[in-house]
Amino acid sequence: MTPPLPIARKYQTWLVVLGSLAAGAAYSWYAGEDANWDWRNYHDYNAYAWIHGFWDRDVAPGGIQTFLNPLPYLPAYLLRHHVGAPLWGMILGAIHGLNLALIYVLSLRLLGNAATALALASTLMIAAFGPMTLSEVGTSFADILTAMPVITGLALILCAESGDRARYLVAGLLIGGAVGLKLTNMAFLLGAFVAVLLAARPLSALLFFALGAMVGGVAAGGGWCWMLWREFGNPVFPFYNSIFRSPEAAPLANADLRFLPDGLWDAFLYPFDWLVGKHPSSEEPFRDPRFALVFLLLIATAMVAAIRRTAILARRDKQFLVFFAVAYEAWLLEFSIHRYAIVLELLCAPVIVLLICHLWRAFQAEGPPRHRYGVVSALTIVVAVGIVLWSQPADWTRRPWSAAYHPAVPPALREPATFMLIEKPVGYVVPMLSPASRAYQIADIVMPIVPGGILDRRIRQGLADPLPGGLWAVHLRDSPIHQGLLDAYQLRLDSSRHCERLEGADLVDLEFCPLTRTP
């Protein structure tokens, strides 16, 4: 008769889930209220416009990013506007914390007999203190949210046995859905496709995975892409307009190339730049030894396998590492924006522990397995502590919860009015204004309004139908007003009236200046 498992072992998965929820909530409370640039620009507005049906009334309050799928920003919007502070941030942080539970489940499968309590604790420590992961806990960023279906889909691929079509189908649904929600997840879909090719029955696995990916992508993003195609002739408008040629935007790819490596050697050095605190892949500084350690461990594993002429990695290990390598290369070539690599940052944890265990086993072939695993587990803890102590998270702007953002809208701005946004990021003020107001962004230099186009006509029709609250120019306090932007619509500042001020989320106030039509 098999003896019963200890309570802690029997319910350890649920304990990890609860611990992950608690860790995410606690860190969000500790870090403070989210006030990141993208939230101030378009995260909040996109969800607001989608819920209330204002997308075809306003004109790009968040600039080019207004046209991104709003669905992944709904949780943050709904919590922020319907739950009090700091509870809304803690709930959102708890949701984000579930990534740790998924890493735990994935590590259980990968490590097999080496999945001791210390080895699993090492994996959780390395994953929990990732610089970009921590920076997004409790924020409106979609990268950490969409990481969950990607990691779950990868776990299903690695758990699938020969002929297990259902798991490949569900894995495709999850990863394809993540791509539909946020197109930057395409790098992980490419990695998953290559990993599936290493399955025991690759053709069947690939067929069902591809079917699931198509259905998931269409379900999560098909409706939004169809709307963009119908309105502008580009399903990902205004991106990749060099292909779709919508007349509403310049025929350019509209890609952010600021962080791409300058050649092969520069790309090779990126992980070591992150190790010493350089941040060529991010606007904000951070420090991360994970990717450099993964790189060195992969080289060591290949060398040991070649010297000993033996297979160190099982097929499942190869699938996992191929997913990681292909996704990393795709991310590096297409974006090199560090926030988009949160999935890879989280997966560094099981990669590091897995490779340390395999290398140790290759050198310690003799002796009782329990002893071998005990020593290597202690080694992984030492490595994990070193990684945690060396890591430094990025900071995308937070406010203390004691000064949670609840600005008082001046009485002059409470009536329905037309607001000309002449700077970024100011889109987050739109949900604070009267729902009957209109907001027109005319300052986005990446995607300027095309004269005579759909958006230009919408602005001119709105100006021809004045609202009782009048016309206002919205910009950041103490920044110059670019009159040239207003000249295109025959507007100028009304010097007979004073400007109104609204407290800004990032301690930079917003200024609303009255406008009048020129003769």
Structure in words:
The protein is of the alpha/beta class. The protein folds into 2 domains: 7-31 and 68-390, no CATH class; 407-517, no CATH class. It has 19 helices and 8 strands. It has helices at 7-10, 12-31, 37-52, 74-82, 87-111, 117-128, 131-136, 143-159, 165-181, 186-196, 202-232, 241-244, 264-275, 290-308, 315-334, 342-363, 369-390, 454-463, 483-487, and strands spanning 33-34, 398-399, 418-421, 438-441, 471-476, 491-493, 500-502, 510-517. Strands 3, 4, 5, 6, 7 and 8 form a 6-stranded mixed sheet that branches. It has a two-stranded antiparallel ribbon with strand order 1-2. Strand 7 (500-502) and strand 8 (510-517) form a beta hairpin. Helix 14 (290-308) runs parallel beside helix 16 (342-363) and helix 15 (315-334) packs antiparallel against helix 16 (342-363). The radius of gyration is 25 Å and the shape is elongated. Residues 1-7 have low confidence and may be disordered.
